Amino acid sequence: MATGYTLFNKAKRNALEPLRFREDGTFRILHLTDIHKIHPDMDDDTDRSIPERKSKNTINTIEKAIEKTTPDLIVFGGDNIGGHWEEMTNEYALWCLNTIIGAVKKYNIPLAVVFGNHDAQNEGIAQLLSKEVQMSIYMQYDNFRGCFNEAEVYGCGNCHLPILAHNSDEVMWNVWCFDSNDYPRNPDHSVISYDADAVHADQLDWYERTVNEEKKLFGKTVPAVLFQHIPINQEYDFIEECDKSEMDYEHNGKFFRAKCGMLKEGLLRETPCAPQSDRSEFEAWVRCGDIKAAFFGHDHTNSFRFEKDGISLFQTIGCGYESYGIERGGRLITLNENSDTFTTETIIIEKEY
User: Fold this and answer.
1) Strands (E), the chain
2) Which of 89, 110, 318, 321 could crosslink 34 through cysteines, CB 3.0-4.6 Å?
3) Angle formed by the axes of helices 280-288 and 201-218, to 10°?
4) Would the pLDDT of 8 be above 70?
């Protein structure tokens, strides 16, 4: 697996100002997930104005969310482009990436990304869809903060970003970016099944090793938030089958709701699409004791918060109009410099076109 940066991008990254809290002791993160950007020409709708409107509304959502929240960091939460479309070509993929990066570039705000299950799904059709190639394109943005990987581990984009105090170089929070991968694969990279994959063991080893090294270095556990695309299996612990009259959503002809008192905020509108059995990632978070909240995409209409063992699990609504959804927008997370507390709010942007 590729790690670090190209020499050119490494020099550029080293010249960047570190992420730092504002003088008022806050740091604002805008989570924009499931953008699903495609080129309008890929959509064969007879009425050509429909794909044009979808494309404009997607970019409008990104830009208006930025203007509304004035973030210090933007995190693209995966399925950033529609890499599962069979119409995707190298040219279309490059256009899609440059379009969503350009929507951030005009504001010169730091950007990090995680990948989803669809970003690189049709890599065999368009080689530019490779996550490593996509990452190299993101790196061309002068204020990009991610990398291929911090260590030689599975996936692409695994990294953590320290946020420094407003008036010193003390690390006050960390932002973790995990590649939750796409689908379970054989050693030759062929797909085993189209059930959701999970974060792999070597990624968790790297995470735990890094947290423990920082505990020794800093003499404390640095509080952290984490971003990845596919949610974790533990979300199923909060959901139960019910009668139709009590349901939050229907799935495969059955009716489900959040268990009594479990839904802390937001809406449960569809079943979480999480790994069916793997529960090791959350267990690693508990052992390390740093993660205060994890933010997921993948399920476009959910905006809920569940809580387990003191860790908040958030779903963020989808951003893009070129896939399914109800409201479009993102989530603003505001970290507090002198405590391990934070606030969040769902940001809904009305369509304009």
Assistant:
1) 26-32, 73-76, 111-113, 159-164, 171-177, 224-227, 239-241, 249-251, 254-258, 291-296, 305-308, 311-315, 329-336, 342-348
2) 318
3) 10
4) no
